[in-house]
Design brief:
By secondary structure, the chain is of the alpha+beta class. The chain has a single domain, classed as SH3 type barrels, CATH 2.30.30.100. It is about 25% helix and about 30% strand. Strands 4-3-2-1-5 form a 5-stranded antiparallel sheet, with helices on one face. A hairpin with a 6-residue loop joins strand 2 and strand 3. It starts with 15 loop residues before the first helix and ends with a helix.
């Protein structure tokens, strides 16, 4: 299962803090939708929900950053980037390694 392409619907069963945790663990780029309506697309590299003012850190698409965005400034996070590990299971990795060994002999 991948979160790629998912636009969360925040509400009673899904909080912003939960979405931020998922975005932090996501291997692809996300789009942070800010309360003021602006959007920042990039890779969430860090988050601190225990800080006096919880925040995420994001690198933009060209690698600038990390930029700090407070939780209080975030309306939502969209999972817009390709998940580079989607479909890459442990079994697929083992099969690839086996093929590489056979090709190297």
């Amino acid at each position: 299962m991948t979160l790629e392409g998912w636009v969360p619907v925040l509400g009673e069963h899904l909080t912003l803090a939960e979405v931020i945790d998922l975005a932090f663990d996501y291997r692809g780029n996300t789009t942070v939708v800010k309360v003021d309506g602006t959007e920042v697309e990039g890779y969430i590299s860090n988050r601190n929900k225990e800080a006096p003012e919880p925040f995420v850190q994001i690198f933009d698409l060209v690698g600038n950053g990390p930029f700090k965005i407070l939780y209080s400034e975030i309306r939502n996070i969209k999972f817009t980037g390709k998940d580079p590990a989607a479909g890459n299971s442990w079994l697929a990795w083992l099969e690839r390694k086996d093929r590489e060994k056979k090709g190297a002999v």
